[in-house]
Amino acid sequence: VWSLGTQENLLPRLRTLQLPVLWLAGDGDETFARLAREGAAALPRGECRLVEGAAHRVPWEAPEALLACCRTFLNRLEE
Prior knowledge:
The protein is α+β, with helices and mostly antiparallel strands. The protein is built from four helices and two strands.
């Protein structure tokens, strides 16, 4: 059910979102890093960050780097 092969491709619908979106993936996960780059590029206000040293489970593999990415993103929204 959760496999990417069975999910609907929602990439075209992303272009309609006007809110800022941070798309994160581990730099060691080739598939999701590619999807993050493509997804962020499709968003009018999308941003992609690849977390160095993490693969598929970024929150568990690099929690401090994940937190830093989120803080940076949110701080820029306040400016």
